[in-house]
Amino acid sequence: MTQDSNLSAEAAKALIREYFQRLLNEKDLSVCDEILSSDYIDHDAPPDTPPGSQNTKEFVARFLEEYPDMQIEVKDLIAEGNKVAARILWCGNHRESGGKFHQMGIVILRFDDKGQLVERWSAYKSL
Prior knowledge:
With about 130 residues, the protein is of the alpha+beta class. About 30% of the residues lie in helices and about 40% in strands.
């Protein structure tokens, strides 16, 4: 990566793969406290959302309650500078209705100089 991050491109991609694996496949919300910086901003969150990991943990916990069998697969990772782009496939079923959740998304994540995530942007399409 560049001077903005001490991570190599391969280390940054491995960290992103670990983050999504633990967060969504293993349902381990503690990964947010480890990998997200205290000033982490999710640009897809509501405008008044304060920075940090707590809001991400709360959102993911609610999402996993609705879709308890949710699994994701990281299809592609591209690292350049202090950012990693990931193409991710999401699959799960709604707890109550059984309705399928099947999306493909692109997520861009930016690292700080300590190797923590500080920003996230995303776009998704239902399949």
